[in-house]
Design goal:
With 523 residues, the chain is mainly alpha-helical. It has two domains: 6-33 and 81-370, no CATH class; 402-522, no CATH class. The protein is built from 20 helices and six strands. The protein has helices spanning 6-9, 12-30, 36-39, 43-50, 65-77, 82-106, 111-124, 134-154, 159-173, 177-197, 202-224, 229-249, 255-281, 290-312, 321-336, 341-365, 404-418, 433-436, 463-476, 493-496, and strands spanning 381-382, 394-395, 424-427, 481-485, 504-508, 512-517. The strands form two sheets. It has a four-stranded mixed β-sheet with strand order 3-4-6-5, with no helix packed on it. The protein has a two-stranded antiparallel sheet with strand order 1-2. It is globular, with a radius of gyration of 24 Å. The termini are far apart.
């Protein structure tokens, strides 16, 4: 079963407008400047898949393999280029916006209002990043799991919906374990409680068979790329959990900061909560009713995403919950039939317009997610001279905000030099260089940070495991030299911490700092 009765709900003018607007706005803002570590997070990793190198097996990851493989499909079908990269995120922004439109109609919101909230949603959803990004994929697949979970509990005998719920959880989980794990645990409890209370047992069979199907797919995948299950478990589950436990220990946020950051999400949710509890006390609904359970599912989503934002301390990307929450609130208000319903609706719409414009300017126009606030995009240069596959980027980055052209010139020289190298390993956050050079750069990671979020630090229980992983890559690829780009100002201990000083010699030229290796040290 689909989400909606298409004979009643498909309205092509609305549908076409939502697709055009949501696709176009992401397409436009995706090319506004770059923050290399985030902008190109899945670029080279997807390119490497096309060349027979796979995440977990050939380069270390802690999340995002579903995004890598999905992007690899876009590269394969279209081509390896910037435009196919942002086509991926733009088409998903359109898909999520269309499904939001249908979902809001399904909860009895009028089409004109559903259209309004869907457009607001599309502006605040994927465009904050613009390019494919692991946290956004995970959040939006959790959102789709929410939509279909609410549909499934209303019609528990429609087994396709349950299969889709499981599917979106799987896609979210293999995009990023958190916030998926928080949401999955909470919703498993809520949905199981609802089904057991209502003596609906057949959905459990559908869920179990769906899980078996995906377990089978996972084992096929592991066999196809010749990967051990233990490696998948360590990189995608246990190591990320070891990072997360440390963040829980250091968890700290003031009430003022919490309210200030999330007030426009909290306001409609708290009002909705009041309405739901009030209806329970008036015996209009029960705690075990599909109406109340649907609200709990949505509440779990919001809570999981907010918790994830607080713990990761990344730029906030969940303001798409604002139009969605207010849309659900308006649908609830419509049922109550207030005398001043038109004034209330008008106030809600004006508030959502204000919030949408506010965060559109902050995150889309000013590119806050990519650390480009206070940078004049008009001072960009074009990326085509670097490589024709990157044509379309309005290139300006936080590091070269006053001289974007010099960064392109530097990268052109780096590209030229890398094309002459063999048997090297490049450690860099310019995660597109592999795709534009003729040399395999053999990067051991998708990205590099100093906080343990991309690879284990010395105190982590998997540090020696990661060291062995690096050494294995050095041996397999017969690596003679490990290169760093000077201008990135990396702490070279990212690599040298694995070796004693007599195992390498340090060299440099005008572009690189590089380390020549003594092969005896990595046997």
């Amino acid at each position: 079963m689909s989400m909606v009765n298409f004979k009643k709900l498909i309205n092509f003018p609305y549908l076409i407008l939502i697709i055009l607007i949501s696709f176009s706005i992401n397409w436009k803002y995706a090319s506004y400047g770059v923050f290399p570590i985030d902008t190109f997070f899945h670029y080279d990793s997807a390119y490497r898949i096309l060349n027979g190198e796979y995440p977990i097996k050939d380069y270390w990851v802690v999340s995002g393999i579903f995004v890598d493989f999905l992007q690899a499909i876009f590269f394969k079908v279209i081509n390896v280029s910037w435009h196919s990269y942002i086509f991926h995120s733009s088409i998903l922004n359109a898909l999520f916006s269309v499904l939001t439109f249908y979902f809001l109609i399904n909860v009895n919101l009028k089409k004109k209002f559903a259209f309004f909230y869907s457009i607001s949603f599309s502006i605040l959803a994927y465009p904050v990043s613009g390019t494919p990004f692991v946290d956004l994929h995970a959040a939006f697949f959790c959102l789709l799991a929410t939509y279909f979970s609410i549909l499934a509990i209303k019609k528990p005998k429609n087994y396709l919906n349950w299969f889709l719920v499981v599917s979106f959880y799987v896609f979210a989980f293999f995009s990023k374990i958190v916030p998926t794990a928080y949401f999955l645990i909470l919703n498993s409890l809520v949905i199981s409680w609802y089904l057991l209370l209502n003596k609906e047992f057949k959905p459990f069979i559908t869920i179990f068979l769906s899980l078996l199907f995906y377990v089978f797919i996972i084992f096929l995948f592991l066999n196809f790329i010749n990967l051990e299950l233990n490696s998948l478990y360590i990189q995608l589950i246990d190591y990320p959990l070891s990072i997360g436990s440390g963040r829980f220990d250091a968890f700290k946020i003031s009430f003022e900061t919490f309210v200030n950051n999330y007030k426009f999400i909290l306001i409609p949710i708290l009002i909705l909560f009041y309405f739901k509890i009030n209806n329970v006390f008036k015996n209009k609904i029960k705690f075990s009713s599909s109406n109340f359970i649907s609200f709990l599912i949505f509440l779990n989503l919001c809570g999981s995403l907010i918790l994830h934002q607080i713990l990761t301390k990344n730029q906030i990307f969940i303001y798409f919950l604002v139009p969605l929450s207010f849309g659900l609130l308006q649908a609830e208000i419509e049922k109550i039939n207030f005398k001043s319903i038109k004034k209330i609706n008008c106030a809600i719409l004006l508030l959502v317009i204000f919030v949408t414009i506010k965060y559109h300017i902050r995150y889309n126009e000013n590119r806050k997610f990519h650390e480009l606030v206070n940078i004049d995009i008009s001072e960009h240069t074009v990326s085509a001279p670097l490589d024709k596959s990157l044509k379309g980027i309005l290139w300006i980055s936080p590091t070269y905000k006053k001289n974007a052209e010099s960064e392109i010139d530097m990268l052109k020289k780096i590209k030229f030099q890398l094309n002459k190298k063999k048997n090297i390993m490049l450690i860099s956050n310019y995660s597109f260089l592999n795709s534009i050079t003729s040399t395999n750069l053999n990067s051991p990671n998708r990205a590099y940070t100093y906080d343990g979020s991309t690879e284990p630090l010395p105190k982590n229980k998997y540090f020696n495991y990661y060291k062995n992983f690096i050494f294995q890559k050095l041996r397999e690829k017969n690596i003679n030299e490990v290169y760093f780009i000077k201008e990135e100002n990396f702490d070279y201990k990212i690599f040298t911490k694995f070796l004693t000083k007599d195992c390498y010699s340090k060299h440099e030229d005008n572009l690189f700092v590089f380390f020549k290796l003594d092969k005896k040290c990595i046997v």
